[in-house]
């Protein structure tokens, strides 16, 4: 290249000035113009750095700030829960009733959020809003401690889980970023009739609390809970029931998860937590083999014509337990009528035309992260099993057979209700994960898992 060519390529003084201004403009683009968008800042980082930050936040969220055992909880300081009407750790009650009497007045104004964020009531009848919620949950909701398996909700599942009869849009409480309207926080509640010992109480069922991973250090969870409480109080309700995998003040009952492999080979390949040790694939396939067909005579899918009979059967069974739902006909129809890839219910009809037995399970999909072969996992979760004529072990084995035929990889159950009667016999293994039941603003004696009859899917 000649000197003249080089001179042609060299910038003039005017061009240099323009380049300098352009560079300065690019640098100033990072300066805050009002509240900063934390997602724009973090998303500009290289992918590897973003993953490193997400792993660190995940580990932080599982650290000592969230005790998973009562022993850990004893040395934990609950700055938020110590301000709420819930039993303190170690408290025990023999009386029944509200901890704080409901006040006639309630806070009118929403609680304050950090700068750059705003509240939103999510109308989940809108497909666009439902997809936004699906994205938030699938990217930020529960995942296994080793960060290998993450829940993956479908639109159909969320419609089922969050839109039963009488659901309220204002109880779907969301948080958005001002700059781009991105949904980054969520908590929901559903109105429910709950029986606690001998008391029937209308209260809120709280579920699906989720905060974006990049915001978990901003203590947004207590603000979400306070705001939802305010919205529930606006409807005249002052009690709530909720579950959590961590220990808060104070569990009404603590239950254990049990699981039964349906596809042992796949579970072994993805290192599914809680698998029996020292069992190779061939031995596992033989050990967990199931019959090809069901054995309970007359077992069939639930139909619309069965709803009234199933309502009577369930209500008679649930009265046995100290904590249970009082389901309406419309709620039985919503929660238990079969929906493809969401809920399956099977019943047995007696000679007199009445329903004698029922077993139902709902499906939860998970994403398998960083695996060379498998990308997904399907788990069936036991909802209700009750009956008067069928052997409970046979009925549950039929549920395992049916779940396997539908492509589920594992069957999960809690040791609530009468479930202990079949868990060992059907080769379920107890996991190291617990689910704790809580009541907000209600005191009563604690109860054992087999006295719990309340089931509500997250």
Structure explained in plain terms:
The protein is of the alpha+beta class and 458 residues long. The protein has 2 domains: 68-244, Aminopeptidase (3-Layer(aba) Sandwich); 253-434 and 447-453, Aminopeptidase, CATH 3.40.630. It is built from 14 helices and 15 strands. The protein has a 15-stranded mixed beta sheet that branches. β5 (199-211), α8 (220-234) and β6 form a beta-alpha-beta unit. The radius of gyration is 26 Å and the shape is globular. Residues 1-18, 21-35 and 55-64 have low confidence and may be disordered.
Brief summary:
With 458 residues, the chain is of the alpha+beta class. Helices cover 30% and strands 25% of the residues. It has two domains: 68-244, 3-Layer(aba) Sandwich (Aminopeptidase), CATH 3.40.630.170; 253-434 and 447-453, Aminopeptidase.
Task: For the structure shown, list the relevant keywords.
single chain, 458 residues, alpha+beta, Aminopeptidase, 2 domains, 15-stranded mixed sheet, 25% strand, globular, disordered N terminus
Strand content: 15-25%
- Total of domains: 2
CATH class of the largest domain: Alpha Beta
Query: Any idea of the CATH topology of the largest domain?
Result: Aminopeptidase
Supply the CATH architecture of the largest domain: 3-Layer(aba) Sandwich
**Poorly predicted segments:** 1-18, 21-35, 55-64
Number of strand segments: 15
Level of helix content?
25-40%
The helix/strand order is HHHHHEHEHEEEHEEHHEHEHEEEHEHEE
The general outline is globular
Task: State the major sheet.
Answer: 15 strands, mixed
Class derived from helix and strand content: alpha+beta
Membrane topology: Peripheral membrane protein
Subcellular location: Cytoplasm, Cytosol; Membrane
Function: Adds a myristoyl group to the N-terminal glycine residue of certain cellular proteins.
EC number: 2.3.1.97
């Amino acid at each position: 290249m000649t000197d003249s060519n080089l001179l042609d390529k060299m910038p003039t003084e005017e061009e240099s000035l323009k380049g300098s201004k352009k560079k300065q403009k690019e640098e100033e683009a990072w300066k805050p113009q009002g509240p900063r968008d934390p997602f724009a800042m973090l998303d500009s980082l290289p992918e590897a750095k973003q993953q490193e930050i997400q792993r660190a936040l995940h580990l932080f969220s599982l650290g000592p700030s969230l005790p998973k055992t009562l022993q850990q909880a004893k040395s934990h300081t609950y700055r938020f829960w110590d301000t709420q009407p819930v039993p303190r750790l170690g408290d025990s009650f023999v009386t029944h009733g509200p901890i704080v009497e409901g006040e006639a007045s309630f806070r009118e104004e929403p609680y304050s959020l950090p700068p750059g964020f705003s509240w939103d009531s999510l109308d989940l009848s809108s497909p666009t809003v439902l997809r936004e919620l699906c994205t938030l949950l699938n990217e930020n909701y529960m995942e296994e401690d080793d960060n290998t398996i993450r829940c993956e909700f479908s639109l159909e599942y969320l419609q089922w889980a969050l839109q039963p009869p009488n659901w309220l849009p204002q109880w779907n409480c969301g948080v958005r970023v001002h700059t781009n309207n991105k949904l980054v926080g969520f908590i929901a509640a559903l109105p429910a009739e709950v029986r606690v010992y001998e008391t029937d109480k209308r209260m809120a069922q709280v579920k699906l609390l989720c905060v974006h991973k990049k915001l978990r250090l901003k203590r947004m969870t207590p603000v979400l809970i306070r705001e939802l409480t305010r919205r529930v109080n606006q409807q005249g309700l002052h009690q709530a029931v909720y579950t959590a995998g961590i220990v808060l003040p104070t569990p009404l009952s603590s239950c254990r998860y049990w699981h039964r492999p349906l596809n042992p080979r796949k579970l072994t390949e993805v290192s599914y937590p809680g698998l029996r040790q020292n069992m190779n694939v061939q031995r596992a396939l033989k050990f967990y083999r199931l019959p090809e067909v069901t054995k309970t005579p007359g077992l069939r899918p639930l139909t619309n014509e069965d709803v009234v009979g199933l309502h009577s059967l369930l209500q008679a069974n649930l009265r046995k337990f100290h904590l249970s739902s009082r389901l309406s006909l419309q709620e039985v129809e919503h929660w238990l009528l079969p929906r493809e890839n969401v809920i399956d219910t099977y019943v047995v009809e007696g000679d007199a035309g009445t329903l004698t037995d029922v077993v139902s399970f709902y499906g939860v999909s998970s994403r398998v992260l960083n695996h060379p072969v498998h990308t997904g996992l399907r788990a069936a979760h036991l909802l209700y099993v009750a009956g008067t004529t069928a052997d409970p072990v046979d009925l549950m084995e039929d549920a395992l057979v049916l779940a396997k035929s539908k492509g589920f990889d594992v069957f999960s159950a809690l040791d609530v209700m009468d479930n202990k009667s079949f868990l060992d016999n059907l080769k379920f293994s107890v996991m190291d994960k617990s689910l704790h039941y809580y009541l907000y603003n209600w005191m009563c004696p604690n109860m054992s898992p087999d006295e719990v009859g309340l089931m509500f899917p997250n």
